[in-house]
Amino acid sequence: MKSKLNFNTNWEYAEAPENRDHIQLNKQYDLFINGQFVAPTKGKYFNTLNPATGKKLASIAEGTAEDVEKAVQAARHAYDKYWSKLSAKDRGKYIYRIARLIQERAREFAVIESLDGGKPIRESKAVDIPLSAAHFFYYAGWADKLDYAFPNRRSSPVGVAGQIIPWNFPLLMAAWKLAPALATGNTVVLKPAETTPLTALKLAELLQEADLPPGVVNIVTGAGATGAAIVNHPDIDKIAFTGSTEVGKLIQNSIAGTNKKVTLELGGKAANIILEDATIDQAVEGIVNGIYFNQGHVCCAGSRLFVQESIEDLVIQKLKDRMETLIVGDPLDKNTDIGAINSKSQLETIEKYIEVGKGEGAQFFQSSCSLPSTGGYWCRPTLFTQTSQSHRIVQEEIFGPVLAVQSFRTFEEVLTKANNTFYGLSAGVWTDKGSKIFKMTNKLRAGVVWANTYNKFDPTSPFGGYKESGFGREGGLHGLLPYLNLN
Ligand code: ADP
């Protein structure tokens, strides 16, 4: 690896590819409706690709409004007939069973997640799959304790939930949506993203294995039109959506004037703030984790960095040095830090923003690492310094490994700058002083604020945004609320 470093990082890593022999993928996947895999009404299929090669992994059914109709009917029937009548304790047992089966098949899920989505196997193994299982475990525990969660209130399920999820954490987003919905006694029609449907379909197989009553969870694959059919279906009681602010606004418009409940988890442009008393090496590692690992495909990615002026040069130098050591490579290689960009169109978006940043006059830096020549979609970790609040790369969500840096002098200045965004999903603060952490976390308009760490998740803590990052919370006790009527 080439390096401009002042210390020796000329490491050569031997390839360490994760074994793929144990995974089973079908050539074609149908829709999962009423406990069975069924062909789509119009007989249409689309391809899901491996973003590391651009090659096809499987054909996926394209669900139409007719298929959504069948799925909603199955969910309503299952709700009326079984799920709302089952004791809360028994509901919990099913959810525990799902959690345990995910744990048992964790390796298989991790490999498929990395194949279909492009994220490094290290991330899928250490984060996505264990956290998915943890979510099911956590909400299984709540199923028969709702009276304790909401004392002196009578809770009842909302009914049939329509859930639409994005491609950045495919199984984890499915778990975030399904676990609280099932624990509170709802049934579900779930739509995975069109570029990453495989782990949701594997989950459907696992639900069959868990003997979940037919129709309790239905999985309808497809693109935006399939999602819109779910949103507009009159017999859906609640919409849970994670995705772009643009589609979130469309959804809100579509359901205006209906009785549907809705939660929206949308985009972000998180500020990661380093104060001069921070432990700099730790902070640099946190910045790298916040924006480069996972290709920046995280809605809470720390994509804006604010560095106090007195330490700016040092932080930027250390950051550049660290960037030079990052390995962009095969998602299935255990050495890989940055995998493949999820799709060609996402790579085009990122490349467009890189050009925008250069055009705006910001100073551009990219690591000199080599990119795989496998035909997939790749992007080097990218840094823009000397950016300003008015730059588009500072204001707009890029959803790639692109960091925009600004410096600041005072506490008040950085708070104003950090809050000067349409979004409000997350933020990070790095400082040695607890008092500064409290002051910052009180004043930052972001749903989650990490202190001296970044991108850490736990099923017990609620997650969600302010402003154009959406509303409603997922995770924790708060995550039960959107799926319940409370009297
Ligand atoms: P991204 O830009 O991150 O791909 P999107 O908001 O486009 O995010 O997609 C998130 C999810 O929303 C995906 O499952 C996608 O298929 C779905 N989707 C896209 N358009 C619509 C729509 N008009 N109505 C409902 N769902 C949609």
Q: How would you sum up this structure, described in words?
A:
- This protein has 487 residues and is α/β, with parallel strands linked by helices.
- The chain has two domains: 28-266 and 466-486, Aldehyde Dehydrogenase, Chain A, domain 1; 271-451, Aldehyde Dehydrogenase, Chain A, domain 2, CATH 3.40.309.10.
- Helix content is 38%, strand content 17%.
- The protein has 15 helices and 20 strands.
- It has helices spanning 65-83, 88-104, 106-117, 121-142, 146-149, 170-183, 198-209, 224-232, 245-255, 280-291, 312-325, 344-359, 392-395, 411-419, 434-443; strands at residues 28-29, 31-33, 36-38, 45-50, 55-61, 155-157, 160-164, 187-191, 217-219, 238-242, 261-265, 271-274, 304-308, 363-366, 382-385, 402-408, 426-430, 448-451, 470-471, 484-486.
- The protein has a seven-stranded mixed sheet with strand order 14-15-16-13-12-17-18, with helices on both faces. A six-stranded mixed sheet has the order 9-8-7-10-11-19, sandwiched between helices. The chain has a three-stranded mixed sheet with strand order 1-5-4, with helices on one face.
- It is globular, with a radius of gyration of 22 Å.
- The model is unreliable at 1-8 (pLDDT under 50).
- It binds adenosine-5'-diphosphate (ADP).
Concise summary:
The chain has 487 residues and is an alpha/beta fold. The protein has helices at 65-83, 88-104, 106-117, 121-142, 146-149, 170-183, 198-209, 224-232, 245-255, 280-291, 312-325, 344-359, 392-395, 411-419, 434-443; strands spanning 28-29, 31-33, 36-38, 45-50, 55-61, 155-157, 160-164, 187-191, 217-219, 238-242, 261-265, 271-274, 304-308, 363-366, 382-385, 402-408, 426-430, 448-451, 470-471, 484-486. The chain contains 15 helices and 20 strands.
